Amino acid sequence: MKALVKTAAGVGNCEVRDVADPRAEAGEVIIEVAYTGICGTDLHIYLDEYRCVPPVTLGHELSGTIAEIGSGVSGFAPGDRVTTETYFHVCGQCVHCLSGRPNLCPSRRSIGTHVDGGFARFVRVPAHRLHRVPESVDLRAAAMTEPLSCCIHALYDLAKIRPGDWVLVSGPGPIGLLCLQAARAGGARTIMCGASGDDGRLAVAREVGADHTINVAEASLGELVGDLTGGSGPPVCVEAAGAARSLAQCLSAVQRGGTVVQIGLYGRPIEVDINLVPMKELTYVGSFAHVPSAWERSLSLMATGQVRTEPLISSIAPITEWEGRFEALRRREGCKVLLTPAG
Ligand SMILES: [Zn+2]
Ligand SMILES: [Zn+2]
Known about the structure:
Rossmann fold, Quinone Oxidoreductase, Chain A, domain 1, alpha/beta, binds zinc ion, 11 helices, 343 residues, 2 domains, six-stranded parallel β-sheet, seven-stranded mixed β-sheet
């Protein structure tokens, strides 16, 4: 089968090559991939800004149908529509695994970074990481369960948003747009903030229900949040752009005593005035990947239509067209791109 492989460490070094079809071992299944989303993490790996273990097939945001079942697997059958958590292996014994946070396990090996992922016809995963896709959720949406689960974890587990809260999301990429919808589903009122070049993505934010959008190249964020919140600022800001200016805006806009959630990755050290954290008594909380409990919640938010993914999908292409799609996303063109198997 053809697979998009990171062939060696360093910038670039990605190519579509022929690899052997995987076989299911005990406790595993083979998924025939329907769609795999290009994630910011894939771009960081392409640019050598995020660690992976090459050679490895990239891609971790996937959906498909079960093609083969390994021995000892029960509850699933060939043809079942599924999506999968990304953790191929965690130790199950460390303090993080035992407290329901396998995303922090130091022994974690994930598909698409440490073991072969979803930019291919078939992918091999442990059966206990599978989630059945509800009938009302199509497989395009199901491929976005992983990024949505990251947002659910950030907003519900870490920021602990409350109904009626104002939540500012800075960065209208796919993660920002899913955070926005997760916040709305939790009863929050939302502001989406973008910069020059983001007008298309801000329009998507309005389509999926943002109460307010603002392009900071054209209007004052401080004035808008001041007007909306009676001068106090939103209690929760989500930095989803992975840009230093965006973080500076969040630290400045957030309410005194509020929370800034860091979900974007910068790929390099950045400079920011961290004095605002003590002076405003802020909680600055990092959010990394997802926890198992977020997955069923994500699927049910999509099944009930509280989270809509279709407006975020800007194109669908075979994996052989990966390079043009990666480069376009680097230029922030489009939004979520799904790749399909080829060969
Ligand atoms: Zn991802
Ligand atoms: Zn562990």
